[in-house]
Amino acid sequence: MKRILLTLIVIVAGLSAIAPDIYAQTADRNARSATRKDKMDAWHKDMAEFRARSEQDRRLAALTDSIASVQARAALQNQDFVLEAESVTFKNGSTVFVNSSTNFISVKGNRAVVQISPSNFASGPNGLGGVTVDGIISGQQVTKGKDGRLTFSMSVMGVGINAQVEIYMNPNSSQASAAVYPNFNSNTLWLSGNIVPYENSDVFEGMSL
Q1: How far is CA 189 from CA 28, 165, 179, in A?
Q2: CATH of the domain at 186
Q3: Helical H runs in 79-142?
Q4: pTM, two decimal places
Q5: Which domain holds residue 207?
Q6: pLDDT per residue over 156-202, tens digit each?
């Protein structure tokens, strides 16, 4: 009987010693679980806020593009615009990406300027790495296609230029492309970029021929 009581006392003592460790381990597991839950909740909250901001940004970008498109179309029709080129394609088919501040076609009233400055290293005749020509426009015409695309055509004649210019503006966008057809040679140029109102343009005009 004494042996049995002694055994029970040892077992109880052992359980008493183990109990705090088990409790501590359980508490630690619960704490880690709560921490993971808090982190997941915080992550879900951050993602929800990010998606909300992204949606707002997309809506703002769409609104900005829409406003830019309306302004560009009005400027084109009013002959008061600049096509700021981002790329220029030459007769041989080679395309170069260019600085939109120094590569452009501008129209203001009855005056047009065509400036091509593909080089950032050579000064060129215009002092900006290329050529600047300007002249008086005539025969200008704006037509609208069934898909909403606008086409602006004009003849430009001046000391350094005698060419037919056609500008094609995409619907619901300020993006446009242009072709410059010289009347006395076949050195056709194509430019691609964006139409902006003349007063909103930040192009640099070099010395014209």
Answers
A1: 73, 10, 6
A2: 2.40.128.410
A3: none
A4: 0.71
A5: 1-209
A6: 999 888 999 999 999 889 999 999 999 888 889 999 999 999 999 99
Give me 8's structure tokens.
């029970």
Query: Could you give the CA distance from residue 17 to residue 105 in angstroms, rounded to a whole number?
Result: 88
Long-range Cβ pairs for the range 3-8 (8 Å, 24+)? none
Task: List the chain residues with pLDDT less than 70.
Answer: 1-34, 55-58, 60-64, 120-123
User: Please, what's the largest Cα pairwise distance for the chain?
Assistant: 126
CA dist., res. 154 & res. 74, Å (int) = 17
Give residue 200's pLDDT.
93
Distances (CA, A) of 91 to 30, 66, 148, 188: 73, 33, 28, 6
In the three-class reduction of DSSP (H, G, I as helix; E, B as strand; rest coil), residue 118 is classed as: coil
**Total domains in the fold of the chain:** 1
Residue 156 to residue 165: CA distance in whole angstroms: 7
Half-sphere exposure of 100 (CA within 13 A, CB side): 14
How far apart are alpha carbons 149 and 142 in whole angstroms? 10
Q: CA nearest 176: which of 117, 116, 104? A: 104
What is the model's pLDDT at position 62? 62
- The answer to whether the beta carbons of residues 149 and 171 sit under 8 Å apart is yes
Specify the pLDDT at position 15.
44
The DSSP secondary-structure symbol of 135 reads E
